[in-house]
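Structure tokens please, single chain.
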Amino acid sequence: VLPWRNSGGLILHPGGNFPILDVLNLSYWQIGNEEAARNWLAWLTKHLHHPEDLDAWRFLLTRLQWTGHAAPNDLQIFVRNMFRVRPEILDGPNAALFLHNTADIIEHETLYNIVKRWMVCDWSQGKQAAGELLISFLFRADGKDTWQARIDAALDADDDDSDAEAVRIGLAHALSSAWGEERIRHTAHPLLMRLLDGAQGARADALMGVFVNYGKFPKITEGIAIINAILNLPDGIPKRHRHFFFDALKELNAGEREARSTVLRACKTILSEALSEKEDGHLGAYHEFEIVRELLVSLMRQRDTAEDALEQFELLVLNQPFETEKVLQSLES
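Here you go.
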């Protein structure tokens, strides 16, 4: 989930007669038919020319994001007119949520123009929102080359290009949150690997979200590649969603030799980081010692990883003597 999706505070209705407008809006959608939706969108379109408070329009978009009863063409006309008459309405998190939930039916040209606006507008998180919206166009026939070119431009930009990095962060959030969709899992692995390459800070944290759906990786080889990419990150394994990352390692540990070798490499990294955290007085390190112990016990039972696993076990015991009895009990069982 993108950080701008939750402000962390109360959301207040705009003043004036907005509560009446809000009730009318909800009533039209609850009628639940295409004609009612068409009439309401037509009425709203007429009011685009009126100088209503922008906050009222932006709040209204939070209600319009669920427009299942509207005909695609009617919704396209409404968004097109909104962008033409009052484009500033579309600068902000409410508009981003609205477009995220309706992107599949909004015409390519309108959405592309909105993304271009977000790339240069004053909205501080517009570039991240643009990155999230770009994901949806990987699976559309219209304008696919144009969208892919914009994604490639963000990925190929220099690491110190803050604008491109904002787009990369948006792509990372969108890809992680959408990883549960089959079409994403089966086609977006190359994009995920490119985003993982050299990821730091917010982008690295966002990409850890794929491990929430680790069990849905199409191929074990892809899981191995992703975990190795995480282990190669310049700042180490991100803290976000680490428990899901550990679950992925446990699953991988039941695989073939290449998978177990990856788990062994992860154990070395986790143990090294945990020992450093222990020296700094972080209590979380003790949980990671337990994870490493559990994985090493399994690896010591396999001939191809037993020697290296034993070496890591010795390092664990040397620094955490109380783990010795737990390991021996596990081996005996």
